[in-house]
Amino acid sequence: MADLALTFSTSNLSEMFAEAQQQTGAACQSNVLESVYTLEKPFGRLTYRCIRLRQGLELSINQLQLEENLRVIQTTQNYSALGLSFCIMGEFRGQYQGSSAVQCAGPSKNFLGLSQGDFRFITDYSAKHPIYMLTINVSPEWLGELCPETIERESLGKTVNVQTSQAKILGTIGWTTPTMLAAVQQILACPYQGKVKQLYLESKTLELLALKLEQMGQPELSEDNKITLKTDDVHRLYQAREILLTDLEHPPSIIELARRVGINDFKLKRGFRQIFGTTVFGCLYDYRMERAKQLLDTHNLKVAQIAQTVGYANPSQFSAAFKRKFGFSPKNYRSQRQAL
Q1: Which of 197, 217, 237 is the last residue in one of the domains?
Q2: Do 261 and 326 reside in the same domain of the chain?
Q3: Which regions of the chain does DSSP assign to beta strands (E)?
Q4: What is the CATH number of the domain that holds 313?
Q5: Alpha-carbon separation of residue 36 from 4, 21, 82 (angstroms)
Q6: Which part of the chain is the HTH araC/xylS-type domain (predicted)?
Q7: Same domain (yes/no): 103, 195
């Protein structure tokens, strides 16, 4: 395993990446909105994009293509930020010094953490698959003005809770819902440039924060409604969701979906509620609507074509479903977006 040690004296992402560049010799390309850092080493290639949206709100998109396993040892001083990270591809494990909790991140998981003070964080990245991550970095002061009760919420420290004389670290791992995933994909596929790009990315970043805060506020399933899920069951449920969302025009029935992934329909239905927070077809509905909204934003397709693309043979049924989800018909939604 290769080691990469970094020391930071700031909680501003762009300044952190600049410090990392000085310590590693990474190549850098910058413009007014973003900076891209690329580090080529024998252990692999690391690419970090840092996008400055506004004071106190930044976005980073990180890609690692590793030839061998990598351990990054991050020592941070005078840090104060709240971060929301989405693992899109690959796997990694992270641990704060002084905490026994190990964060295991993989596709369809996200981590919300508040970190303040001086601490060390160790991350082990696997070389099995490319690693692709998206992180939102928010100053607690900015978020506190917007949503003052958020950072004091007890559920924030559910996975990690370290409070010492030198540091305060609270964190929680959650499942990435189809609606969150759609917003992440829209950020990655942003079709705009310049100020419009900045505005679009800021709106999607705030949307992700809102979705995560909403998720944290939802009551958990009672113990009576929970079922025991083995690691293999969880993998099968993720496989089922992938199958379900791959063919929007001809999705399988619950019985067929359960058969294809090798679990019974009861475990499939309960497992979806337990892991993804929705029903099987609630998941499909949410993804269809988010995909339709993305097509309305970025393509000039007719509403009937979009309806067919997301699995509705009847445009009227599609329009009713879209309005039920967003409060606007597809035509009205597009008109309002074009008027901006």
Answers
A1: 217
A2: yes
A3: 2-8, 27-30, 34-41, 44-54, 57-66, 70-89, 92-96, 103-105, 109-125, 131-138, 160-163, 167-175
A4: 1.10.10.60
A5: 19, 10, 22
A6: 238-336
A7: yes
Buried b (16+ CB within 10 A) or exposed e, 203-232: ebbbbbbebbbebbeeeeeeeeeeeebeee
| 277 shares its domain with 207 | no
What residues pair up with 30 in beta bridges, in sequence order? 35
Q: Same domain, yes or no, for 144 and 197?
A: yes
What's the total number of domains in the chain?
2
Q: What is the DSSP string of 150-217?
A: GGG-GGGGSSEEEE-SSEEEEEEEEE--HHHHHHHHHHHT----HHHHHHHHHHHHHHHHHHHHHHHH
| Residue 93 near residue 104 (C-beta atoms within 8 A) | yes
A 10 A CB-CB count for 292 gives 28
Amino acid at 41: K
209 plus 315 within the same structural domain: no
User: Is there a contact between 56 and 138 (Cβ–Cβ < 8 Å)?
Assistant: yes
φ and ψ at residue 188, rounded to 5 degrees: -65, -30
Model-level pTM? 0.71
Contact predicate 222/273, CB 8 Å: no
CATH of the domain at 47: 2.60.120.10
Tens-place pLDDT, residues 260-297:
999 999 999 988 887 777 899 999 998 999 899 889 98
- Do 17 and 77 fall into the same domain? yes
CA distance 89 to 66: 13
pLDDT given at position 155: 63
Using only C-alpha atoms, what is the Rg of the chain? 21
Q: Tens digit of pLDDT for each residue in 17-37? A: 888 889 999 999 988 889 999
- E strands, 98-166, are 103-105, 109-125, 131-138, 160-163
Going 135 to 141 to 143 to 144, the CA torsion angle's sign is positive
Residues 204, 229 share a domain: no
For residue 312, the enclosing domain spans 223-339
pLDDT for position 108 = 73
209 and 85 in a single domain? The answer is yes
